[in-house]
Amino acid sequence: MTHLPTTSPDEPDSTDPIQLADFEKKIILRPLEIEDFDALIAMQAACFPGMETWGIEQIQSQLKMFPAGQMVVVYQGEVVASAGSLIVDSDVVADWHDWRIVADAGYIRNHTDSGDTLYGIEIMVHPRFRGLRLARRLYEARKDLVRQLDLARIIIGGRIPGYGEKADEMSAREYVERVTERGLYDPVLTTQVANGFVLRQLIPDYFPSDHASRGYATHLEWTNLEYVADKNRRWAHVAPARIAAVQYLMRHLDSWEEFCQQCEYFIDAAADAKSDFVLFPELMTTQLLALQTVKRPAGAVRELAEWTPQYLDFFTRMSIKYNVNIIGGSQFTLTDDRLQNVAYLFRRDGTIERQAKIHPTPAEVRWWGVEGGDEIHVFETDRGKVAILVCYDVEFPEIARIAAGMGAQILFVPFNTDNREGYLRVRYCAQARAIENSVYVAISGCAGNLPFVDNADTHYAQSGIYTPLDYAFARDGIAGECTPNIETLVIHDVDLEVLRRQSHQGTIKVWEDRRSDLYSVTYRREGQDDVVI
Fold first, then answer.
1. Where do the CN hydrolase domain residues begin and end (predicted)?
2. Is 142 left (phi over 0), alpha (psi -120 to 50) or beta?
3. Phi then psi dihedrals of residue 185, to 5 deg
4. What is the pLDDT of residues 425-468, one digit of tens each?
5. HEC string of 85-146?
6. Domains in the chain, start-ordered, CATH in brackets?
7. What is the pLDDT of residues 294-339, one digit of tens each?
């Protein structure tokens, strides 16, 4: 009998030991390294076509601020998945809906080791390696990190890329409800729900360039059941707002660009300090009078009003570029041939509001022919409700009372005074308005001189931020002040939640104790119902 060989000459001998390494697929989860940058952005481009990728500065900043929160999955030597995060204090963060603010646009310079919440800024899996449950590995690694650091929760804002195909059939709310109920599959949300995250909120305009999600995102939370809070800590909700009040030096200018450069310097400084508001002085644009061809005061300011479009364009760009709300002082504006002194609020989302000065000073009327405005506005911002009282307006208690009665929590007072007496009228009235109405008041004025500019030649200022007077606030009711008559700015935090609590629990309760049975203030609005405060 002939025995045939059991293996061909080209096949390995079955008696040879099996080399397991020949069959292994090596996958590891490790910390992100700066050497991974090229692979990371290539993966990001593959995951999110058409969206801007990370820059090297952002990755360097992430690794500097919180290296433990930046992870990658490496499969067969290739970076195929990643996750980024930072730690924040849930009592401080009020902008869960705004990825750019919470994640510091990817730089995470707001990371704090003393926080209680891990915020996930991004998680991604290369399209070629989906199906390997790599996202689960990253989510589990995040949970392990949270337990290790004894944090209370993980919060993420997730995309819903499957919604784009269903947008014509249902609303975003209906879509996420169907996904969470397992009726539909979404490449991102389904995975997040499967990993124990609970949907808390649907966020519109979270990432407008994310067309697949139609700009929507989900706010999700995972709770650490092993979290042990500090029993000795007294918990209290806070609502901080950081204010920068500019003390602006008036000087001769040779061009519009020079004016913009001077303003941008202060905006940059305030934004670098993570300010929420930057307040500029009243009529700082009178520097530009030196550029005008008409020298007669009344004609010169009307010519100055022609700069208003450039002024609006500049401060709108600055508010977006530096992600800060700007009260751009004030500027002469022609409305139906009426010359008004108008203050503008430039929100960091690109929207603009205006408040005309209600009470022009006698000098404004005499020299320039300025007319007063007829409306008092209270503006919603991402840091509470605010109102603007332009200089002389703060000397009329009724204006502040109406604004506070309409909900204003911060009064911004851009002013322009030529001597110490004028400044002190503004300053003392600002402090009185803070006490009378239980609000914060910030004032910003001009220093320096403008030789040969009628009615705007000399200036006196001390910019400051003022509070009510009670145990919870700054001593003397002064949160911060500049040194008088130099070019500088003052930056200080105010807490809107303390303001709310003190109005009900303070030593005095100016709103509850008012004798509205004896007196009131009536604001008459043309074509609308009167407001009685």
1. 241-496
2. alpha
3. -110, 130
4. 999 999 999 999 999 999 999 999 887 677 778 999 999 999 99
5. EEEECCCCCCCCCCHHHHCHHHCCCCCCCCCCEEEEEEEEECHHHCCCCHHHHHHHHHHHHH
6. 25-223 (3.40.630.30), 241-532 (3.60.110.10)
7. 668 788 889 889 999 999 999 988 887 887 899 999 999 998 889 9
